[in-house]
Amino acid sequence: MNNITHLGQEMHHILYTRANEVARETGFMQRERVLTGSSFVVGLVSAWQANPHVSLSGLSQAIGNAGTPLSRQGVAERFTQEAVTFMRAMVEECLTAKIMGVPVSEGLLARFSSVDLVDSSIVTLPNPLAEVWQGSGGYGENASVSSLKISVRWEMRGGELKALDLSDGIVHDRSAPAHRDPVEAGSLQLRDLGYFKLDDLEAIAQQQAFWLIRYKIGTVIVDEAGHVLNLTKWLPHQVGKRLDLSVQVGKTKRLPARLVAERVPVSVVRQRQTRIRETARQNQTLPSAMALEMAHWTIYLTNVPAAKLSPDELFVLGRYRWQIELLFKLWKSNLGIDTWRTNNPHRLLCELYAKLIAALVTHWFLRVGCWHDSRRSLRQAMPTIHALAWQWANSLTNRALFTHMLRALQRSLSCCHMDRSQQHPRVFQLLEADFA
Predict the structure, then answer these.
(1) Are 203 and 191 in contact (CB under 8 A)?
(2) Which helix (H) or strand (E) holds 322?
(3) Which among 53, 179, 213, 253 could disulfide-bond with 198, CB atoms 3.0 to 4.6 Å apart, if both were Cys?
(4) How far apart are CA 230 and CA 233, in angstroms?
């Protein structure tokens, strides 16, 4: 079975067969037969996938396109607690999809059984939704009485979203299943500083896997002779732009690791120090002298042996972690998962869950359509996919039409790629490069 056929079967099963079953299980569909669960979820998902700011009239038309003509008033009346429960359950159903992809077989990524990026993003919600999703309060752009935390584990060899967890905004990153779930032996786990905890890194190593993470300021570093290194005093005296040494991490844990450090240009130092001072100003505190000094360096800790990953390669993979930041940015800018045009809490939550499903559907199309191409551009591909939202929604129940649509999408996505650059190689070029 090829990938396109398999995707068609999975989407039909989840968004048609299971959608109608789940609609009955959650009470969204009872004796009423005018509107099916499939028409409702497919209509909402495709409408918001095509236009994150679609009107009620647009939603009505999209549900009609998906199989059930429904007036604007009829759509508005369907935004109930039962609808919210149904849409939330459909997010979970979509996460069970097993989409076939073509994994990367060459380059840096292929040295590991999988390469997992883990991170989270906050969606700030109106305060009345605090009973549904509790925020952290506090200050800053993400401060709210109500907020949703979306945690993702993204496997980069084949493109699979291994986990997408929804939790209260107040929950710490390290508590999310996306971070806590077992990892594959031989895999590389790329983590943000929000996940820095020595016990967790040790647990990854005990599963015969590798980890790579930025150094957290204040973490105790011990050299091979057993001496605690004061990095703010020790680093400035080191010769060369880049360092690579064996260390132990932690005051009592003493976790074996490599410390790889690189001096950064003066312009970067100034940018970092400006951000440090601005954050301190917002928090009404003084900037940390240690943080200002450490701004001169980019420092990684890892348990990957030097024989498996050189310092140059390590910095390429460290830079690659930003792909997950790009994913969240595109979900917000292209799909508008953090925007809405209603004060109705039931309609707002239905919109939020529909847009999350749209993000998953978009990702399925990306995996099948262009993941095999290392030059793929998510920025170019997403608008192309979203332009076909009404077409896939209309053809979902017709296998021949749906297959035709997917093949046309594949041809379009083959043109959504980045150009190579000799002067400033892009990350995909560096991942392919032979550093030996």
Answers:
(1) no
(2) helix 322-333
(3) 253
(4) 6
Encoding tokens for residue 57?
């009239």
Q: Which strand (E) or helix (H) includes residue 431?
A: helix 427-432
- CB-based contacts of 230: which residues, under 8 Å, 6+ apart? none
Using the 8-state DSSP alphabet, how is residue 419 labeled? P
Q: What are phi and psi of 388, to 5 degrees?
A: -100, 15
The tokens for 349 are: 């939550």
Quick one: residue 250, left, alpha or beta (phi over 0 = left, psi -120 to 50 = alpha)?
left
Q: Residues near 201 by Cβ (< 8 Å), separated by ≥ 6? A: 211, 213, 249, 255, 303
Separation between Cα atoms, residue 5 and residue 122, nearest integer Å: 35
- Cα radius of gyration (the chain): 24
Tens digit of each residue's pLDDT, the chain (436 residues): 588 888 999 999 999 999 999 999 999 987 656 789 999 999 999 999 999 999 999 999 999 999 999 999 999 999 999 999 999 999 999 999 988 877 777 889 999 999 999 999 999 999 999 999 999 775 555 467 899 999 999 999 999 999 999 999 999 888 888 888 899 999 999 998 889 999 999 999 999 999 999 999 999 999 988 999 999 889 888 877 789 999 999 988 899 999 999 998 999 999 999 999 998 888 889 988 888 988 999 999 999 999 999 999 999 999 999 999 999 999 999 999 999 989 899 999 999 999 999 999 999 999 988 888 888 899 999 999 999 999 999 999 998 999 999 999 989 998 998 888 877 778 878 888 765 4
Task: Supply the pTM of this predicted model.
Answer: 0.91
